[in-house]
Amino acid sequence: MKKYLMVFFISMVPLIELRGAVPYARVFGLPMLPSYIIAVIGNMLPVPVIFLFARKVLEWGKDKPYIGRFFTFCLEKGRKGGQKLQEKAGRGLFVALLLFVGIPLPGTGAWTGTLAASLLDMDFKSSVIAVMLGVMLAGVIMGLAAFGLLGAVGAIFG
Length: 158
Known about the structure:
- By secondary structure, the chain is mainly alpha-helical.
- Helix content is 78%, strand content 0%.
- It has one domain.
């Protein structure tokens, strides 16, 4: 039970998220499906809060002593992510957000994607759905990678 709780909490941590929780589950020999479900839930739990409040809190704190630099960094990271999404997506912002969150690269994920959606004034429902589908895609990719299946496919076709 403790290991499943760790999967849950790791998936909630910014920048690590599900991308770190799924390999953790694999290393500790946890079954993939329950670990995947727990990691998706843990990664999605902060999403509505981020969408509804993060922008307001970051705007409020960007000029405060001690926290201002970090808050400004977070706002800039969200804005840059949002600009990249908008440039590449045009009118297909939903799919772009899904792929931004779903392709497990450094600096992408539910936290950054949700903040970017908020800064782009996307509507709540489509943002949460796109982020959830992206988190699920990232979980599948990380699960395949953790079990070595991506390497095996590369060896076969490489």
